[in-house]
Predict the 3D structure of the following.
Amino acid sequence: MIDKSFQEVANRIKKAITNTQFEIMSDANKKLVNLYYNIGKTLEENSNWGNKFIDNVAIELKISFPNLKGFSVRNLKYMKSFYNEYKDDNDEFVQLVAQLPWKHNITLMQKVKDKEIRKWYMHKCLEEGWSDSILIYQIDTNLYNRQEKAIKHNNFSMTLKKNSDLASNIMKEPYVFDLIELTENYKEKELENKMLEKLKNVLLELGSGFSFVGNQYKITIDNQDFYIDLLFYHIKLKCYIAVELKVTEFKTEFASKMGFYLTALDEEVKDETDNPSIGLILCQNKSNKIVDYTLKFINKPVGISEYKIFDKLSKEIQSKLPNANDISSHLDIME
């Protein structure tokens, strides 16, 4: 058996190596983005050479650096646009841009024209560690408007003693799920099954910090079994989050049922270090006034939102999503 003190030393060394690797990669990325910016500046300042100028530069670079990628005509034009896009911006923008991979910067420059909204997506990329495909998905499904500008229907500020703002940040209006294979007249069970098949996408939509616990999670009380559609644990909030899926318009009894589930989770499942459990009810549609009235008499933290089925994902994004084997292996690991 390895001595504990030795293992602690080894772990400290491994952590130092990992941290240094990250710092090297981060520094390299900043230098690369800075290089592209300066190349773009040079290209812009010499635009008077004519339409073939960038083509000739690309040929010259290919001859001088035959093994280097990233200096195609198209990418050189991106560099020129990149310089023009940010040459007049403040230091905050420059620092954000430098922290993002080049592909992310191109995506943001092409897809998000409003710079304040673009800045919001930049911060999200850094906070959540999004890949470029995930960034495209979030922009295409209009995450900014759904999360930042939407009216969020929950009673978290009244029912949670702490972390109410953080809890509110998990709410979106509407939630968007990639459920392309749903039949036209889908039923609630099929909706839940398709969501489970796209587990990775559900976690992505709910945001960082979610850990999947189970679907149709069973709680037994006085020999009666009750089942929660989807149960997560949120690491940052330190609480369980129950998700109920409804393929109908919101009804007041949904909230009462969720209140029962949350009480059961708090009494039967959570330990003394956990915060109170939170409920999310996702409906096909809802009356905002009925939702607001309902939330006023529910003494458990509940959020209610609509969901939309998103069926216009690019092939690139679809290829990144998990297939049935991916989900199966993931669930096997968790058991």
Notes: Residues 179-184, 311-318, 320-335 have pLDDT under 50 and may be disordered. Residues 147-334 form a domain with the Trna Endonuclease; Chain: A, domain 1 fold (CATH 3.40.1350.10).
